[in-house]
Amino acid sequence: MKIFYCGDIVARSGREVVLKNIEKIKEEYKPDVIMLNVENAAHGFGVTAGICRDFLEKGADILVTGNHFLNQRDVIPFLDSCKVIVRPANIPENNPGRGFVKYELPNGQTILVVQLLGRLFMEAVDCPVQTVDGILKNYTLGQNINAIFVDIHAEASSEKMSLAYYLDGKVSCVAGTHTHVPTADARVLPQGTAYITDVGMCGNYDSVLGFDKNAPINRLRRHFSGDRLVPAVGKGTLFGILVETDNKTGLAKSISQIRME
User: Of these residues, 68, 153, 178, 180, which one is catalytic?
Assistant: First the structure.
């Protein structure tokens, strides 16, 4: 199975570069499934139902969120009605939406997509290890599921790496998101799980994490956080990963970092 995953989509620049390139992704890389992290797609914070529909109509198969998944209120009913959008799993169960999604491809293969939030330097959430263990009790790679993809949305690289090694051999891929800076450590771990610390963002890189530079610089200079963050305006760059798995075992054969303008 070939899995294409785009990192955090930030505001208009990110949306435009992803929508522009989805057809090219299909033609050039021929993925079986296209997944997008839509965490920051609506003006840098959260996502709307309309934006989600735009991505799905253009050809995305699965949408993944993050810690801002409830920032746009109109997405709340969509989280319940849409069967292919994933919100964090390690938060209280009474939240709208699903923390994991089982998706069937046209060829009959199935992929399980799980989202977890980190706990270091972030708001308090349930233990990601206990949460993913509970989910994986019902799914065994290479037996009743063809691929398992875990998004770890976290600040600390050490937390992402630790989770990846813990899940090595149990899932197809552990991909880090949230920090918006692509890392150069894409690799297949010893037991066959593909890993990258951060996929990177889809957005304007002439910015601070996708936002206009003035407010972050002022915050740095004055030690005052009152300046409002505004998404950067300009040309977007797409960062993503392409993971290929073995059809028998579900483990990763390769992982490649992709950059598109």
Answer: 68
